[in-house]
Write a structure and sequence with these properties.
The chain is an alpha+beta fold and about 140 residues long. It is built from 5 helices and 7 strands.
Length: about 140
Amino acid sequence: MADDDFLREFNKGPAASEASISKFELDSGRVLPPGYKQFLAQSNGGEGFVNDAYLILWPVEDLAKFNADYEVEKYAPGLTLFGSDGGGEAFAFDASGGQARIVSIPFIGLDKRHARAIADDFPDFFHQVSRVLVGYS
C-alpha cells in the first residue's frame, strides 16, 4: 500500500472490524473500495502528516454521520467523504464513473463541480495527496 516513509508522521488508529465495515456498506448502500478496506483493516482512520501534507482520515463508524452532517447527497451526490486536510478540503470516493476514484472537494460550497481528481485508487492516495496538497507536480 503506502510507503512507510509517507506514514512515519501519520498516527494510525486501531484496525477496524470487518463488522463495522460491513455495517457501513449495508446501511449506506455503498461498497467501499478494496484498497480502502485493506487500509481500514490496518488502521481505522488516523491523523498526521503525509510528507508535508496534513491528513485526517475518519473512522469507518463516523463516515455515515459526517456525510449526513455535510449533506453530501444533497450537495455532491455520488461522493462519499472519508477525511480531510484538516482545513477546507475534504477527500471523497467518487463512484459515479463506475470506479471509486478519489477526489478533493472544498467543504465550503460543497459541489461536485469543484471536485479535483487525486488518485484512481486508495493505494496511490497517500502519495498523490502529499503531492497535490503541497503543490508538487
